[in-house]
């Protein structure tokens, strides 16, 4: 939250420590933390350190950490790299659409797109009619009906 509030100087040592700990533990969040630290360093006008931090990050699927990577590239002034990543972050955060979305990530991706001057893509909302029924769904609905009937007969 410190970084989201624009307090990059306060966030930087915490991100550096979290990244060091993640590397030591073999966490799969190293690339995400590296990107967040790189964005922070770039916002602190330390682009060489930011680029080195990104270069030292392990190669992860960009869609897994597209938002932080987009923020880092945007902070470094690399709008051509940030744009596709911000769009990918928005699509991933959208998931099946509200209410089945990752709202914090969606807010961040929307903010990145606004900074880039790009509109959010129009994506479909969740349509329960298109969702396949589970094999056990009828059994569960029958069981719920039985529970409701038993509850009503007790009243």
Summarize the SSE layout with pairings.
Elements: H1 8-25, H2 30-43, H3 47-56, H4 66-75, H5 79-94, H6 103-116, H7 137-154
**Helical percent range?**
55-70%
- What is the radius of gyration? 21 Å
Spell out the helices and strands N to C: HHHHHHH
Strand content: under 5%
What does this 3D model show about the protein?
The chain is an all-alpha fold and 155 residues long. 65% of the residues lie in helices and 0% in strands. It is built from seven helices and no strands. The protein has helices spanning 8-25, 30-43, 47-56, 66-75, 79-94, 103-116, 137-154. The mean pLDDT is 89.
Question: TL;DR of this structure?
Answer:
This protein has 7 helices and no strands.
């Amino acid at each position: 939250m410190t970084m989201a509030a624009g307090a990059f100087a306060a966030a930087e040592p915490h991100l550096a420590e979290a990244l060091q700990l993640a590397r030591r533990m073999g966490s799969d969040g190293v690339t995400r933390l590296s990107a967040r630290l790189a964005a922070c360093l770039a916002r602190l006008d330390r682009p060489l350190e930011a680029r080195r931090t990104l270069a030292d990050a392990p190669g992860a699927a960009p869609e897994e950490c597209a938002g932080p990577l987009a923020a880092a590239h945007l902070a470094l002034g690399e709008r051509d790299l940030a744009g596709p990543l911000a769009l990918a972050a928005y699509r991933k955060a959208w998931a099946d659409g509200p209410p089945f979305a990752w709202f914090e990530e969606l807010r961040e991706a929307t903010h990145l797109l606004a900074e880039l001057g790009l509109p959010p893509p129009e994506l479909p909302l969740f349509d329960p009619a298109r969702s396949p029924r589970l094999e056990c769904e009828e059994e569960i609905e029958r069981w719920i009906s039985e529970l409701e009937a038993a509850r009503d007969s007790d009243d």
